[in-house]
Amino acid sequence: MSIRALIGALGKAGTGKSTKLRQLAKPCRRLLVADADGTWDAGPGEIEVEGAPALFALLGPIAAAATPVPFRIVYRDAADRMKWAAPRVVFALRNCTLLVDELAWLCTPSYAPPPLAQVVQFGRIRRINVLYTTRQPQEIFNPFLSEANRLYFFRIERSNGLTRVKRDWPDLVTKLPLLNEFPPPAEFCTYGNPAIEKLLGREGLDFSPTRLLSSRRT
């Protein structure tokens, strides 16, 4: 029974990954955007904070620990601090969504800091949704792929990235290099059940966790 969404957008730069994440994140009630490269433009109602001390100081005044309370925070910091601070915050708060644009800033294929690894491995228990982008699937901590219940594949050129795709999604290998590279319109292939996206926007709300996916591999 899946009660959290773990959704990734994969593909080369400029193919529409961040735009897709913005669409997915739009309904989220309790959202923390980890913006390591400083390219995420804050939208209406989104609070921008610089540095981990400012992020921690903000949580009390906005009552973020109370699950009915909505918030949308864009957190900017050096990647070395962000990869510890952002996952610690969402793991402590529970019932929220962590969005990471360019996940490779915060992890490597073989290592993620313990707080980040906890979010992907045990975030289901705390109902932590995760949205992320990456240019190359082989550049990120593997559980973000193996535990994902929804993936968007944008254009990937013939490269090590396509070799990684071939291992787990062989039916996509011939399609991805042919996708339109310059949106609009953005072209992508999908994997996983779209019903999981219904959890985005339910953060902190009481709901009956009906079976959305019989398996993450369905």
Number of DSSP E strands: 8
Going by helix content, strand content and strand pairing, the class is alpha/beta
Number of domains: 1
Main β-sheet, spatial strand arrangement: 3-4-2-5-6-1-7-8
Strand content: 15-25%
Looking at the chains present, what oligomeric state does this protein adopt?
single chain
N- to C-terminal distance: 12 Å
| Fourth CATH level, the homologous superfamily | P-loop containing nucleotide triphosphate hydrolases
* Helix/strand order, N-terminal first: EHEEHEHEHEHEHE
Largest sheet: 8 strands, mixed
Rounded to an integer in angstroms, the radius of gyration calculated over CA atoms is 17 Å
Total of helices? 6
Query: What is the general shape?
Result: globular
Name of the CATH class: Alpha Beta
Going by CATH, the architecture would be 3-Layer(aba) Sandwich
Q: What fold name stands as the CATH topology?
A: Rossmann fold
Helicity, in percent? Answer: 10-25%
Average pLDDT, rounded to a whole number, is: 90
